[in-house]
Amino acid sequence: MDTAVNTKLPKCDYEQIIFGNEFAYRGAYFRELLNLNEIRQGGEFIPSECRPEFSTAIIIPYRHRKDQLEAFIVYIHNFMRQQQIHYRIFLVEQNDEKPFNRAKLLNIGAVHAIKEKFPCLIFHDVDLFPMNVGNLYVCTAQPRHMPVYIDKYHFNVVYKDYFGGCVAMRTETFQIINGMSNLFFGWGGEDDNCFDRVKSKGFKICRFGPNYSKYMMLPHKKEIPIVHLKALMENAAKQFHTDGLNSLNYTEKIVILQPFYTHIRVEL
Ligand code: BGC
Predict the structure, then answer these.
(1) Most exposed of 31, 103, 133, 150 (fewest Cβ within 10 Å)?
(2) What CATH number matches the domain at 15-267, 3.10.129.10, 3.40.50.720, 3.30.70.3280, 3.90.550.10?
(3) How many C-beta neighbours within 10 Å does residue 187 have?
(4) Of 17, 24, 15, nearest to 134 (Cα)?
């Protein structure tokens, strides 16, 4: 696949996209994938009219949410192509019966994105939909927590240190913090652990204001938290240097370049 960017093109103009900050959350974005032949096999997009300044890997941890996935893939391609960014979508599917391990799937997605030389990683849950086009899907110097104002929580901040749902982080930062923990099988805590990793290395969390960080969340049934979550969190907090990218092991079943995403199926 030819992924080279045409250097003769003018630079993409991000000011217009940011200041325009168009409301994106419209019915049409859900219903159909517009101009789908712009998207390359494996879910990659390179603007054809201008030279992009940013390359972003979108990494989605996934299992058993087919309807949400279909809606998300349609929406996110329609949304992101407005932003004139080079991006590719990596879907990491847990293909075993163990409790879902979101953070470990994100580590696996990061390993693939690093291999493909993406400098910016966005870890994205499948049930979150960004509402404004000015919310550029790029990495700031500090790790960015993206869904700050979510409709499900009446557009209030969930809690001060909340770091869940969707995070943008430079690849080098993710490597510095040794990725995420591999220990969190089941619901809860892995995002708080990631927040602590980021802080322990001296980074600060960045958040955009309400005009740029509103999200819509699709409904799903309430997850049951990990039993003894507090103890696990305390234990995991002592292991940033030995638990993460440097201890990641898993079985890769298959990698398929689907028409709209790169599908990585794994057993943990
Ligand atoms: C959990 C997080 C979760 C948050 C919001 C916290 O209690 O530890 O993992 O993202 O609640 O639901």
Answers:
(1) 31
(2) 3.90.550.10
(3) 15
(4) 17
State yes or no: pLDDT of 239 exceeds 90: yes
Å from CA of 189 to ligand 1 middle: 6
Q: Is it the case that residue 42 has pLDDT exceeding 80?
A: yes
pLDDT for residue 26 is more than 90: no
pLDDT digits (tens, 9 = 90+) for 181-212: 999 999 999 999 999 999 999 999 999 999 99
Is the pTM value of this prediction over 0.90?
A: yes
The residue ranges of every structural domain in the chain are 15-267
* pLDDT for position 2: 53
Instruction: Say yes or no: CB of residue 158 within 6 Å of ligand 1.
Output: yes
- Tokens encoding 22: 């168009």
- Closest atom of ligand 1 to 191 CA is 9
- Residue 206, burial from CB neighbour count under 10 angstroms (0-12, 13-18, 19+): middle
For residues 194-203, b (16+ Cβ closer than 10 Å) or e, as one string? bbbbbeeeeb
